[in-house]
Structures are given as C-alpha cells and as structure tokens.
Design brief:
The complex is a heterodimer of chains A (362) and B (300). Chain A is of the alpha+beta class and 362 residues long. Chain A contains 9 helices and 21 strands. Chain B is mainly α and 300 residues long. The chains are: A alpha+beta (362), B mainly alpha (300).
Chain lengths: 362, 300
C-alpha cells in the first residue's frame, strides 16, 4: 500500500436491476469524477441504496457496466473492490474494541502489527478519538460510533469511500456538526466519496454534485446551487427545498399563468406532461410600494404569520391562486413594514427566480 | 401571603408521605403476587433437594458417614456409569452441534417465511412426547426395522446392523430429542446478527469465508454456548431414551439412581449419586464459561 493515494473516477453505464416487475435500477448512467463528493439523493424506495450496493458489489445488476478508473468492476466480488464503506447501522463489530475494529481491514491485508497500530492511531487521531482505542463499542455514544465507522472505512486509504446514510441515526445538532466535519475530512482524504441520503439539506450542505434518484432513474445531476435554482423536473423542484407549485400553460417558450405571461429568465427544461411554476417562499420579495414592472406580481392578503425563530413564514391568500408562502428573515429588516393579519401584502417574484418545470423530466 | 406559603409547604409534606406509602404498597403488592410461586418452589423444589441430599450423608444404619460417597469413588461399577454418562453426553452434544450449526446457518439465509415454515419441522417433534419418539426410533432401528431392511434390500449390507439396544441406539435417539434444545437458542442468536456486519467485513476485504469465521461465528457463540449447556446438562440426567434404546446394556447415571432405589432401596447411595451429578453439572457450566470466555462476548 502506498502512502500517496490517488482517488479514482467512477463510470456507471446503463445499469439495470429488476426485482420481479419492480425496476430498482432503470438504465442508470453516471460519471463521478476522481476526488468528487457525489450524493445520491432520493426518497425511500427510489433505488439510491440499490445503486450504492451495486457499487459495493452486494447487489448484482442484471446489465450494464461499472468502471473504477479503467477497471471493469461489475463481476468483481465486494471483498476485491477495495472500497471503504460506512453503513447506516455503522456495522461495528461489537465483540472487538475500537482499535480492533479500525485495524480490521489492515489485518485482512496482512499488515505488520506495528503498522496496524500506527495507522489505527493515526485514523483515531483524524476522527478526533485519540485515546479511545481500548474502549468497547458499547461504551461509545452514537456520534463516537459514527466516527469509528468512518475511521475504519478510511484507515486503509481506499480510493473510493461509500457511505449509506451514515448520519441518519444522529440527533439534529450532531448531524449538522458531522456534515461539516465529513466535508472537511473529504478534502483531507482525497478519495472519491459516494454518499447516500434522503435528507436534501444534508445533500446540499456536503456535496460537490447531487444526483437526484427517483423510480430507479437519475432525474438530474448538478451542483447543489444549480440543482436548487434550476431543477429540470417537478419532482426535483418539489423534493429539494420548500415550494408551492401552480400549473401553467407553455406556448412559444413562454409560460402563461391565468392568461398572463410569466416573466422568467430561466430556461424551461424539456419534458412531458404539463408545466408548473415553482414558487420558493424565500425567493418571493415583500414589496411595500408598487410592484416593479419587471417582476411577476403575486400580491394577496396576509392569512397567517408564523414565527419560526430563524425566520418568519407568512401565509398569503391570493384571490385566484390560493395560498402562497413567503419567508422573511426574523430580523429587523425582515419585519419592518410587514403587514398584519388580513392586510394586503405586495409580493414580487423576479424573473431570475421564476422557476418553470415540466411535470415529468425527459 | 405567608399563610399561603405555609399551606403549600404543609401540603407538600403531606404529599411526600402519601407518595412514599404508595410506593411501599406497590412493592408489597408485587411481592405478594410472586409469593405463591416463591413458596411453591421452596416447598416443592428446594426442600426435597435438601432433604434428599442430606440422605446421602447417612449410611444404611442411619448414622452420619461418608460411606455413600466413598463407594462412588471406589466402586468400578459406579466409575463405569460416570464414564458412560459423560461419553454419551459429550457425543450427543458434539453430534448436535455438527448437525444443528449448519442447519441454523442455512435457516438464517432463508426468507423469514420459509424459515418459519421450516422451524415448524423442528418444533413439532419437540412438542411430541419423548416416550413416543423413543418407541418410534426402536421401530426404525431394530434388527428387522425399516433402516436395516432397506439397507439390505439395496445390498449395501448383508447382515443387519446392531442399531438398537446398545450405545449407538441411545445416542441416535438422544440426538434426535436434544437437537431442538441446541437449535432454538442458536437460531435466535444467529437471526439477530446484523447482516450489515457481514457485509462490512466483506467490504473491508474479508473473503466470505473469512467474514464467517472472524465475525459471524464469534457472534453466534453466545447462542451456541447456551445450546451446548442445555443439551449437555439435559443429557447428563437423561433417563427414558437410554433406558429403552440402550436395552439394559447402557447404564447412565439416572438409570443407576433409579435402580439403586427400586432394586436395592438404598436411598442414601442414590442421593449421593444425585449430589455428585448436580455438582458435576455446575462444574461443567463453570468450565465451559471459562473455555468460551463468554463474559466478554455477552458484554455488549
């Protein structure tokens, strides 16, 4: 094992896997760059875990190709793929100490006792658990177990690390802390990371790119910001972030809502079914005076005001479109001039924030 | 103002004593509920054991002596009984492990539904009377029983095998009866082993065989140990099957105790045998715990 690790790109082509009539993977193709942090994001049952398990070798696809670098892996057994893996349940061996758990992959690879010890200690150090080597797994908290699982997955310096919802068992505060730590660790490790989660916020926080998975297909692969601001289908727009959506008519590349043309700078993606306008509460602007000519007017009456600590959610009743939510910061600037319940509120949606998506992606 | 405060203080004091007495009453109710069982065990189990054990310290003339124990250690006949008892118990345990472990492992690989159906095949014989099953084996194993006649009709053997009325017959019958005692705790333990652990071991580079020996097997040991202890201890004191399938040629401890009472009416000697059997069983449990090092495994 060399000390300088080169991360590997992953190329998935035309992967298919059916369980009876259910297509868990439906012709999935995806390129993951060397050293990238890519997240597979999707609801439960979307096929994201099946895809990760196919990468790991625990699920045998029916068809397709998996390349690590230029090596075909689809027929390689999981123990020969050289992957680091972190499981949702952590999968730490309960009858071994922390150090024995971490040294496991080193022992399998036949490293000398002194090398095992040195690397284990280094790994413990990296996850800030130095001095915990002799503890039993049962003596650790959830967050500490998570770190041990992480240390065990990276101690043998794999070029690719797979993570299956590793933070989902932690409480919110610790989870958010670990997200930042994992991201920092990834930059230190120089390994390609494929991460599975159903938590869109977690995906946005950590990833270089996010692949949104639904019904065994990849809906969209994008950087977090582009995915959020320019979803290519209603599913992606709805799954990521909060939104209210309204059906719109599209003709001549222009969207019409209630017979009026919607001003939008964003391209309208190809797809089938009808189109929908996606309104994110934080993209609406509360306007105290006249709505500018350049923006779309969504003014209505305040139905309810909900204080949520970091922000204020205002539920606005629009006369013809129903309820629209707008979020304003809970600071003085946000609250200034905010109408009270029942009063008229001016809302503007600017063209660069006007997201129109097809009902179904192409 | 101060009178309201005094009121609250008085009420809190009153509440404290009410809460305390309620807690006491709850404890007493629980104790009262378990009292019949405690008394029953004391009267039906512990008193007779103490009384019977005490008999072993009196000789035939009714005087205190260690005569009964001396005889056990001096008489070749008794020594032989102990040797046979251990021989059979160890053989039965080993065969049960060899048959039961792969079976349980296979069951854990099946779907819940299939495994549940197959477990019925383990449980139905378990619920059938030992006597019935032993007689059934006698029918199968006897000189001109189904097994011998089948083997002979295929020309595999020329003379009937001596399968019943000896050690072989006793062991076959006992293995059949003891197998569920090994399977039940072992299967329960194996079923609870997280498959992610095996995947993790393989993902980290172990071959499937390596993952089995390094992870699955150690994690199945608590169940295996429980099964081994059950089978071994039950075998030590087993009576019906060796008595019937051994055909009088196999004398295990329980049979020796029975004949000592019914044939020789020597309660002291029988009692001494019982005491030695009990002590041996306890020593075996302690020894096995040491060998398997299970305190470490059970500590999660």
């Amino acid at each position: 094992m060399s000390t300088s690790v080169q991360s590997l790109p992953i190329v998935l082509s035309r992967l298919c896997k059916a369980y009876g009539s259910v297509k868990a993977l439906d012709n999935v193709s995806l390129n993951i760059a060397a050293g990238e942090f890519l997240t597979l994001l999707g609801p439960s049952g979307s096929g994201k875990t099946t895809l990760l398990m196919a990468l790991a070798g625990f699920v045998r696809p029916d068809y397709g190709s998996i390349l690590f670098g230029d090596r075909e892996m689809i027929t390689t057994p999981p123990n020969k793929r050289g992957l680091g893996m972190v499981f949702q349940s952590y999968a730490l061996f309960p009858f071994m100490t922390v150090a024995e758990n971490i040294a496991y992959p080193l022992k399998i690879r036949g490293l000398s006792k002194s090398d095992q010890k040195m690397r284990t200690e280094h790994a413990l150090d990296t996850v800030e658990l130095d001095g915990y080597g002799d503890r039993r797994i049962s003596q650790l908290s959830g967050g500490q177990r998570q770190r041990v699982a992480l240390a065990r997955a990276m101690v043998f310096e794999p070029q690719i690390i797979l993570m299956d919802e590793p933070l989902s068992a932690l409480d919110k505060k610790l989870r958010e802390h670990m997200q930042i730590e994992l991201k920092a660790l990834h930059q230190k490790l120089d390994a390609t990371v494929v991460y599975v989660t159903h938590d869109q916020r977690e995906a946005l926080t950590m990833s270089d790119r996010i692949a949104v998975v639904n019904h065994g297909r990849i809906e969209q692969v994008e950087t977090p910001e582009r995915l959020y601001r320019q979803p290519n289908s209603f599913f992606v727009a709805d799954f990521i972030g909060e939104s209210v959506s309204l059906p719109v008519e599209v003709s001549n590349k222009k969207a019409h809502l209630n017979g009026r043309v919607l001003k939008s700078d964003l391209p309208i993606s190809e797809g089938h079914g009808g189109h929908r306008l996606v309104i994110r509460p934080e993209l609406l602007e509360v306007i105290l005076g006249e709505i500018p000519e350049t923006a779309n007017d969504f003014s209505g009456h305040v139905y309810d005001i909900i204080y949520q600590g970091d922000s204020i959610l205002v539920i606005v009743q629009h006369e013809s479109l129903g309820q629209i939510n707008v979020r304003v910061p809970a600071n003085r600037a946000g609250q200034k001039g905010l109408p009270s319940q029942g009063e008229r509120i001016g809302l503007a949606l600017h063209p660069e924030d006007t997201i129109i998506v097809p009902e179904h992606g192409s | 103002m101060s009178s309201a405060e005094d009121n609250t203080r008085a009420r809190s004091l009153q509440n404290a004593s009410t809460l305390k007495s309620e807690e006491y009453r709850e404890r007493m109710t629980l104790f009262g509920l378990s009292l019949p069982a405690v008394l029953a065990i004391l009267i039906v189990v512990f008193l007779p054991i103490f009384w019977l054990s005490s008999l072993s310290f009196y000789n035939a003339a009714g005087a205190l002596s260690m005569e009964n124990y001396e005889r056990i250690f001096k008489s070749a006949l008794y020594r032989r009984t102990f040797v046979v008892t251990f021989q059979i118990s160890i053989s039965v345990t080993v065969i049960c492990v060899l048959l039961g472990y792969p079976l349980c492992y296979w069951l854990t690989k099946l779907s819940d539904r299939t495994a549940a159906i197959l477990m019925v095949f383990v449980l139905v014989p378990f619920w059938t009377s030992v006597l019935v099953r032993t007689y059934a084996w006698l029918v199968l194993l006897q000189r001109n029983g189904i097994i011998n006649s089948t083997l002979m009709s295929f020309g595999i053997i020329e003379e009937p095998l001596q399968l019943a009325h000896n050690l072989t017959g006793s062991i076959i019958g006992m293995v059949h009866i003891m197998l569920p005692f090994l399977i039940l705790p072992l299967y329960a333990t194996m079923r609870n082993i997280d498959t992610d652990l095996i995947r993790a071991a393989i993902g980290l580079g172990s071959s499937p065989r390596g993952a089995f020996w390094r992870v699955f097997f150690p994690m199945s040991l608590p169940g295996l140990f429980a099964g081994i202890v059950l089978v071994f201890i039950l075998s030590l004191g087993f009576y019906v099957t060796p008595a019937l399938l051994g055909g009088g040629r196999v004398q295990m401890l329980a049979q020796r105790i029975e004949s000592t009472i019914t044939v020789y009416s020597n309660w002291g000697a029988a009692s001494a045998l019982g005491v030695v059997l009990l002590l041996l069983a306890l020593v075996m449990i302690w020894l096995m715990n040491r060998v398997f090092g299970l305190d470490k495994l059970f500590m999660r």
